[in-house]
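Summary for the funding panel

The consortium committed to producing paired sequence-structure records for every protein in the target list. Below we show the first two records in order, beginning with the earlier of the two.
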Amino acid sequence: MRGPDLDRERSEQKRSASEFLTLYNQGLPLEFPRATAAFLAEYKRQYADQFKDGFWSLDLHRKKFMDWLPGHLKSRES
């Protein structure tokens, strides 16, 4: 019998923005832009439909935020 899938449980756990911020930046390669509280707030405003329960999760938001951030940074430079 298999034990619990701890990675999956960790990934699906509901988190506050500050918890997500810490976990998002952990182990991120140096060439990737870092998340900040301000960027998380902007993302949450832009994609409010993803936050019906008000929480962040690595499973639902990490990849989407990672894809959004570089384009957002470029648009701010223009």
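The next record, for a separate protein in the list, is shown here:
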Amino acid sequence: MNGDRIEGSVRRAYLLAGRASRLPGKFQLPIDGIPVVERLAQRLSRAGLEVVLVSVFPLEVRGTRTLSDPFDAGPLGGLEVARRDADGPFFLFGADMPFVDPRAVDALRDAFDGRSVVPVDASGAWAVLHAIYADLELPRILRLRRGGAGLRDLVRELDAAGRVRFLSDGEVPEASLVDIDTPADYRRALGRGGARADK
């Protein structure tokens, strides 16, 4: 498979919206007057991706198809929903990432060689909700989910099998990896680059 065909095959992004127990309603919080999840969907659409929302509760974004996550088992459950829907490799993002950068999308696409692609952030942690996933077997996902494992456990297994390509810190713009989990995260997001709650 040549590089153009590989790159062209990653055209869909799934946005995962979970319970958000530490900051209820976070996906609808405004940044520059636009709800976080809608802002993310717009950025990914401008980067040429088809965007699909996967949510454990009713949530809609204009112009975006929504899938229900019946598992409510964290990101691994959302990934299972995405895997069942996808017809090939796909991007996976947390729906609470308002600063995803088109350059980050390009960096992931450029790095994709048939394996999953996961960036590493400045702390050395895997950014498993800002990644491309490829060649995932449903039985593996089911086994992990039913055993109470998480998305990082899946990435760990894929890595052990040589099926993950990690991007070093700096290969993806750091702002792209920012997510909002707490009120303090939201306050920091509003202070980033002059962002405001309203326009």
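Regarding this second record: The radius of gyration is 16 Å. Confidence is low (pLDDT under 50) at residues 1-7.
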